[in-house]
Amino acid sequence: MGSSDTLLARFMALHPKLIDLSLGRILTLLERLGDPQKRLPPVIHVAGTNGKGSTIAFMRAILEAAGLSVHVYTSPHLVRFHERIRIGAPGGGRFVDEAVLVEALERCERINAGDAITFFEITAAAALLLFSEHKADVVLLEVGLGGRFDATNVIAHPACTVVTPVSLDHAEYLGDTVTKIAAEKAGIFKRGAPAVIAPQEPEPTAVLEATAERVGASRILIGAQDFNVHEDGGRLVYEDGDGLLDLPLPRLAGRHQHVNAGTAIAALRAAGYGGLPARAFEQGMLEADWPARLQRLARGKLAELIPARAELWLDGGHNPDGGRVLAQAMADLADRNPAPLVMITGLLSTKDAKATLSHFKGLAQTLFAVPIQNTLAARPAEEVASLAREAGLKAEVVGSVEQALHEIASRSWSAPPRILICGSLYLAGEVLSANGTPPV
């Protein structure tokens, strides 16, 4: 038996393009595999630009708190591919074991027989195959890119479909306006399945609602219109037509996580899980975990390098809207506990770096631009620093995150600094690995 790393490397050569949005290839492979997508537990399918993973994390935590077993498919991974496939089990799921993953990947490779297929398509097929062969109560399925032609869009009768906030990202594949992108995300809506639309701007909301109506969604729930979530007296209050939930504030930091938590609750209720005990929703708020999304690193090799009483935060937000909500979260932290904000940033060349960083003007004291290793799409650190300066930030270049932390520790600050490492999930993965705290 080979290793998953060897198999995954071989899969990269099966198609000349890394991304080629289409359903034909994966449907052919799934048919050869016996159509595992037709033998799954109830599926909640989630698309969107930002917040997909966090929304799934809340749903998983709530469902598992109620004693249900949950399969989860998300992407990309941070450190190891195994993070993408969580196999449900009583008491809580686990990342797929190496031997189980290798066997599934080998089966897919053998049955695909060398035909052209993208990396994402063949690995998504492996996940669906595994989910069909391991018992669970629910499948939480995250779209990889877009929705309409994404390889996960092979579920004919989902229990519920969800679209989290939509904004500009991956314009080269999905379109150069938010309405075009929303139309692609709306491609997961299915006749007879509830459609849950997270609170967002009017333009994408209109496109999403119109598409859900056109395909014949059984029920359409629109955030701020059909369900509402807000903070009141240090509690999270969720309201919809089925009643009110008074919950603890989420463990996941940032006001944007209130929206994600509310969307998760709305989706569970729409999918038929509204009758779960109140304690499951309460516990879900406190136990939901999603690495590299405003994650505080309080221990580890990198955390040991920061000045005494300083804070070290990590976030993988990588588009302008992600930058906006992250800057707002940093501003909220500063209101509660003032501290000089210092950024360590690496970005990909495919992202709008200037627009993403502009939200930190007047908020961050300085930015250290660092290279991202092991990806051809990484922007040179010098270019990141130049774009940061154009966005109104003071910026300088260093050779690594470790070097940036040493530089921060060597300088004088008005108070122990709040250090934010951000800009890319690739960088976030490197940081978690170097810190010795990968997702488990």
UniProtKB/TrEMBL annotation:
Keyword presence, DNA damage: no
Mur ligase central domain mapped to chain residues: 46-267
Swiss-Prot/TrEMBL keywords: ATP-binding, Ligase, Magnesium, Metal-binding, Nucleotide-binding
UniProt GO MF annotations: ATP binding; dihydrofolate synthase activity; metal ion binding; tetrahydrofolylpolyglutamate synthase activity
Entry's transmembrane regions: none
Keyword ATP-binding included in the entry's annotation: yes
Cofactor entry: Mg(2+)
GO CC terms, sorted: cytoplasm
GO BP terms: tetrahydrofolate biosynthetic process
Root EC class: ligase
Catalysed transformations (reactions): (6S)-5,6,7,8-tetrahydrofolyl-(gamma-L-Glu)(n) + L-glutamate + ATP = (6S)-5,6,7,8-tetrahydrofolyl-(gamma-L-Glu)(n+1) + ADP + phosphate + H(+)
Signal peptide limits: none
Assigned EC number: 6.3.2.17
Family membership noted in the UniProt record: Belongs to the folylpolyglutamate synthase family.
PANTHER family registered for this protein in UniProt: DIHYDROFOLATE SYNTHETASE-RELATED, FOLYLPOLYGLUTAMATE SYNTHASE-RELATED
The protein's name: tetrahydrofolate synthase
